[in-house]
Amino acid sequence: MTVLPGEAAATVDGPPPADPLVLAAAWLPVDGSAPGPTMTLSTIGLDGYPSARTVLLSRFDGQRLHFHTDTRSRKAAELAAVPRASMTIVWPEAARQLVVTGDVAPVTDREARLAYDARTRYLQMLAWVNDADLAGATVELRRERWTAFGEERGDGPLEPPTTWGGYALTPLRMLFWQGATDGPSNRLAYERDADGRWRREAWPG
Ligand SMILES: Cc1cc2nc3c(=O)[nH]c(=O)nc-3n(C[C@H](O)[C@H](O)[C@H](O)COP(=O)(O)O)c2cc1C
């Protein structure tokens, strides 16, 4: 991979930083702010085919990208088998796309708890109610169960269910795409080598 000089023309304002995490910090919501953008989380299916779905970016901590899910989910089983994933985040209004690929590990219980507390009430309830048993039930039954859960718990704070889990992805590759109305789009591709150093290339497309 060719390493570009720091002054090379870039997809971002000014010269590209040597460390893509600096650029990611400019593109992603800062730690502790409201839930981040949605992203396509791609894992490797148990049958070897890609497996993709939308999730919320819970947090970018400056090094890792966090997301949360049900530990009984398909993605949790896939990550247990192969702890690698890609995240694709798009900001159409800013003509930006970020694709991050890397290694995934569970977050600590404390991190998972903080993320649960930061979720809306609706999403907190969803983590309790949305299970496989209910999936095949009628719409009426699903609504009844939802209402019953809400009445049972009242307005008090909810604890996360034991099935609430979080993961954080440590980037190995980061691909920043920037579109433009008055010129071609281009990409900044970063890859981390075995020594932890980031190498950078400009890509078309
Ligand atoms: C906008 C949007 C946001 C979502 N956010 C999450 C999320 O943060 N966590 C999650 O587990 N599922 C989320 N989902 C549901 C997933 O897309 C998916 O249906 C679910 O996690 C089960 O995926 P799996 O069977 O591949 O594990 C979201 C769906 C949409 C459309």
Explain what this protein looks like in three dimensions.
This protein is an alpha+beta fold and 205 residues long. It is built from six helices and nine strands; from the N terminus they run αββββαββααααβββ. It has helices at residues 20-27, 74-81, 109-118, 121-129, 132-135, 139-153; strands at residues 38-44, 50-56, 59-60, 65-70, 84-91, 96-106, 164-178, 186-192, 198-204. Strands 1, 2, 3, 4, 5, 6, 7, 8 and 9 form a nine-stranded antiparallel sheet that branches. The model is unreliable at 1-11 (pLDDT under 50). The structure holds flavin mononucleotide (FMN). Residues 38, 53-56, 67-70, 73-75 line the site of flavin mononucleotide. Flavin mononucleotide is lined by residues 38, 53-56, 67-70, 73-75.
Supply the key terms:
alpha+beta, 205 residues, disordered N terminus, 9-stranded antiparallel sheet
Strand composition percent: 25-35%
State the domain count.
Answer: 1
- The geometry reads as elongated
Report the sheet with the most strands, covering strand number, pairing sense and barrel closure. 9 strands, antiparallel
CATH superfamily label: Electron Transport, Fmn-binding Protein, Chain A
Ligand kinds: flavin mononucleotide
Structural class, by secondary structure, is alpha+beta
Task: Kindly state the percentage of residues in helix.
Answer: 25-40%
Secondary-structure element sequence? Answer: HEEEEHEEHHHHEEE
H/I helix tally: 6
CATH architecture field: Roll
CA-based gyration radius = 19 Å
CATH class: Mainly Beta
Terminal residue distance: 17 Å
Low-confidence stretches: 1-11
